Amino acid sequence: MKEVPVGVSARHIHLSEEHIEKLFGEGYQLTVLKDLSQPRQFAANETVEVRGSKGSFPKVRILGPARKHTQLEVSRTDAFQIGVKPPVRESGDIAGTPGITIVGPAGEVELEEGVIVAARHIHFHTKEASEWGITDKQILRVQLQGERPLTFDDVIARVSDAYALDMHIDTDEANAAGVKTGDKAVILD
Amino acid sequence: MKEVPVGVSARHIHLSEEHIEKLFGEGYQLTVLKDLSQPRQFAANETVEVRGSKGSFPKVRILGPARKHTQLEVSRTDAFQIGVKPPVRESGDIAGTPGITIVGPAGEVELEEGVIVAARHIHFHTKEASEWGITDKQILRVQLQGERPLTFDDVIARVSDAYALDMHIDTDEANAAGVKTGDKAVILD
């Protein structure tokens, strides 16, 4: 059985070096609150406010390290709440997505694009992917047998030496399935 | 193909006659904003505030007519937001569920039990159910081919002469599937 641990992503933001400095001050370095399941990725102690047209989230967790482009990942529920209309996209694919206002202790950023609802996906280390016959970008059907059993028919496989086995879903998806981080998912085909 | 229209339920409340009077005044009658898909059910013009331990929703839509027992239906996301821990239940099955504070223009109600996350279900008129070989309480697998395709493996069939064909899911479920009211679902078996 191809069993995968589930990681539920709450709304979070990845910041570029340039935006970290604008929001927190020149030369500022994020500090580590907690290591994440993917190697070298961490939840930072720092948070920012994000402001949409209808509302704001005062404390959105920053995930480090800095990335090339700033990217805010929200659930569809979050998006309705603050008044932004992001598409469902893979991480990094932000061309043409909406922007948002980001507020930190040292300044603000008017982000032009970068708000997405993250497409559900599984990170595989190259070794597991190879053993299971799974290739990068493959679309998988994945069953979650939580309190509210369901099968996602469109889970994207992402394969790299830099990844650890983990299925990433957002809070809407976790709540629809009745699962939490650490629960198990099963790849059906 | 067994095709069913989807109806997305936002958070809402059903009130008993007694609670309508406590919240809106003696002899008060709800007024109709909009008829719903189920015969004789309606969204009322009236709303109430509901208050949990961590937050409140200032305008929760009342669905009429009055019921025997007051029942608040929220998504899991809603429940986290206001600090209440309802189980996933079928409508009407409220024994042992948490309560909540309800505030209306004429008074407040300390509800002792009645908060649920509604179990996903399909209403069938007896005629369709019979044609499709579906029986009351049967568990169905139902596919939603929206922006984020998925299959719910635990959809409860509810069959009655008083029902019209409609699949009811909450906002978490709709957002996880990328569907909206009026989209179509397909019963797989």
UniProtKB/TrEMBL annotation, chains A, B:
Pathway this chain belongs to: Polyol metabolism; 1,2-propanediol degradation
The record lists the catalysed reaction(s) as:
propanoyl-CoA + phosphate = propanoyl phosphate + CoA
Role description? Involved in 1,2-propanediol (1,2-PD) degradation by catalyzing the conversion of propanoyl-CoA to propanoyl-phosphate.
Q: Quick check: keyword Disulfide bond in the entry?
A: no
Reported cofactor(s): Zn(2+)
User: Which organism does this sequence originate in?
Assistant: Marinicrinis sediminis
Identify the InterPro entries for this entry: PTAC
Coiled coil start-end:
none
Give the EC number(s) listed in the UniProt record: 2.3.1.222
Family named by the database record: Belongs to the PduL family.
TM region(s), chain numbering:
none
Q: State whether keyword Transferase applies.
A: yes
Molecular-function annotations in GO: acyltransferase activity
Top-level class of the enzyme under EC nomenclature = transferase
Gene encoding this polypeptide? pduL
Q: Quote the protein name from its UniProt record.
A: Phosphate propanoyltransferase
